Amino acid sequence: MQTFIKKVTDESVFEAVNILNNGGVVGMPTETVYGLAAVGTDSEAVKRIYEVKGRPSDNPLIAHVHKDYDLEKLVFVEQDYVYKLIKEFMPGPLTLVMKSKGVVCKEAVCGGSTLAVRMPSHEGCQKLLRAIDKPLVAPSANLSKHTSPVTAEHVYNDLNGKIPLILDGGKCTGGIESTVLDVTGKVPRILRAGLVTREMIIELVGNCEIAEHKEGDKVKSPGVKYTHYKPNCKTIMFSEEQLDLAKKCYEESIKSGETPYFMCSDRVKNLLNDGVNVLNLGKSAEEMAANLYDKLLEGEKKADIIIAISLPDEKGVNMGIMNRMRKSCG
Ligand code: AMP
Ligand code: MG
């Protein structure tokens, strides 16, 4: 199968809708990362997503809908605070897990009773969702375990020959996957950290827990138990306190004839010697989130080893960045 990349236009969206309505899957842009979409009510199409990605069959998918779609067609809103979250953060990088009404097929939720729903703010994605007017289920559009794609080219590099069309909506501005929030209980619970932070949720609804994943627990969000986001090169992670050790690691790598790259914040870059190879994540947390996967995917092309330097804390957006950095480089 030949894979085409097409900029989001009326024509390419029309083509994507046709493919999707005929049981196919397409790559689509969102503000977080690129998604691999199928119609959520079509079991065969949904199975195709798992096949194409090599995704474990116990890891459920997020249903994406347009701004004016009534979420209550898909899920039961059981807690009043959910309306506040919807009003404040939708459309945007927040996914809500609620009791499913069973409209989205069981293959997408892996037989579970809940469904994760999201309204992307990306204009190109909205255009597609509005045109099809059905929930599109989509995981990130990468091969399972590999780094998530933030450009159409990244999707192409992983899925070339496996899907017919990638809608190109430019580089994702968010850069890490949505916050996944379980809102079935009295207190909302973060299952996966993202750009909508715990602090933002507490400010709005007064309370927010973070799901802990202990050995032996029944995993509430299966995705978090897998190795994830791995670039195709060696990786190692140091804290800022271990910077001298990280520098030694860099020198050792050079001596053994490899090409090492540091991956760090702009601030830490200034603590490194001039002339060393750096994948600079940038200054603010938002900028670093937006650059993380792009830098990992750039790194795997030119580095034998990525030496990542962790962030000094896990406040706000840093929590989501560190969650990904640990899984990709730890
Ligand atoms: P991905 O689309 O690859 O970014 O992964 C989606 C994330 O949402 C994974 O971590 C899933 O485990 C999680 N997720 C999707 N549906 C549910 C659900 N019904 N309950 C809990 N977590 C979910
Ligand atoms: Mg993913």
Outline the secondary-structure elements:
Layout: E1 4-7, H1 10-21, E2 26-28, E3 35-39, H2 43-53, E4 62-64, E5 75-76, H3 81-89, E6 94-100, E7 114-118, H4 123-132, E8 136-138, H5 152-159, E9 165-168, E10 179-182, E11 189-192, H6 198-205, E12 209-210, E13 234-238, H7 243-255, E14 260-265, H8 266-269, E15 278-282, H9 285-302, E16 305-309, H10 318-329
Parallel strand pairs: 1-9, 4-7, 6-10, 11-12, 13-16, 14-15, 14-16
Antiparallel strand pairs: 2-3, 3-8, 4-8, 5-6, 6-7, 10-11
This protein binds adenosine monophosphate and magnesium ion.
Considering the chains and any ligands shown, give keywords for the structure:
single chain, 330 residues, alpha/beta, DHBP synthase, Rossmann fold, 10-stranded mixed beta sheet, 16 strands, globular, binds adenosine monophosphate, binds magnesium ion
| Number of β-strand runs | 16
Helix % is: 25-40%
Shape: globular
Can you say what the CATH homologous superfamily of the largest domain is? Answer: DHBP synthase
Q: Give the helices and strands as they follow along the chain.
A: EHEEHEEHEEHEHEEEHEEHEHEHEH
Number of domains: 2
Q: Main beta sheet, described?
A: 10 strands, mixed
Query: Which structural class fits the helix and strand makeup?
Result: alpha/beta
Q: What ligands are attached or bound here?
A: adenosine monophosphate, magnesium ion
Number of helices: 10
CATH class category name of the largest domain:
Alpha Beta
CATH architecture group name of the largest domain = Alpha-Beta Complex
What is the residue-averaged pLDDT? Answer: 96
